[in-house]
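User: structure tokens for this one?
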Amino acid sequence: MTKPPRLAVYCGPFDGGSTAKIAASLANGFVARGTPTDLLVTASRAPIPEATDPQVRVLAMGRMGPWTRVPAMALYLREHRPAAVLTHRIREDVFTLKAARLAGTGTPVFVTVHGRMSVKLDHLKGWKGRRRRAEVLHWYRRNRGLVAISQDTAQDLHALLGAAAPVTTIPNPIVTARMLELAQAPIDHPWFRADPSGARTPVLVFAGRLEVEKDLPTLLHAFARLRAGLDCRLLIIGDGRLRPQIESVRADLGLTESVDMPGWAANPYPYLRRADLVVLSSFWDALPTVLIESLALGTPVVSTECGAGPREILANGRFGPLVPPGDPRALADAMARTLADPLPAATLRQGGERYEAQRNADRYLALMLGSAREVNHVG
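Assistant:
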């Protein structure tokens, strides 16, 4: 009996980031269809909440430094002979393509592009920006396939690489049964406890990295405006380099008692499910996972129009209002309107349906296994 072909998904750090969640979701989806799959991981800060299926073979690739990552990947390709490899970032994709050439295995390599590549490259300045642009232009056409997470991302790739670039659009595999199960976990935070009458002060939630592109200062200024007319609270879940700056803005606005910053949460889903409103204040975001997760859990959302991703997720405002980035007044008004008149949970869940994990993992499988069959036929 012929063994089914094995696939590999390069995850990188196995942490709480979106890429790790997507990589694990795809690996789980592949093995659910009977396709053996390796999840290639490097050192991680903490495990992601979505456990991998026991059938997924998780392989530690070591530190993968600049001088070791190509030989380490080439050794993996020669020893394990996957039918195809999927990567997620520029650097990982380039060294995997180099490793495939060094190994001499002819392994097809695919890359998922998480947002407009031209914007990412424009934000990289100096020699690093020039090097990354050169790598993309030289190596990305050598992938067997480029997977764009949205139509906007696909159009941008074609503009950057040419109309003949092998681009396929597949939404991210976000909504899993495991995620919905994790969302049912209890919450210890006192803000989610009702008073004796059953009432509770509305709680808004932000979940994400505390980095420049998330524009937390705008969210805090908008929240201060909202709170001037409505008793409410804001929970900021996440961590990052800008924590001291954000804490300073919080204090300056007199919000220390009404804005809590508990840090990174291993399982953020109960907070998203129990929130009265989830808010995204970014000035740039590709396809924000938190919006998809919140919709799937039936929670109202408000987002800045910080790229084509939020517009696509929210169907041009059908599933939640979109406001200009960097505008506290517009964000506060949208939050107030949504809290006063939220969409029904059933309507919101419709917005998450296209990001159902197994459905989109199946599309990856068809793409990658189709390529593997071509290689075997030629061989």
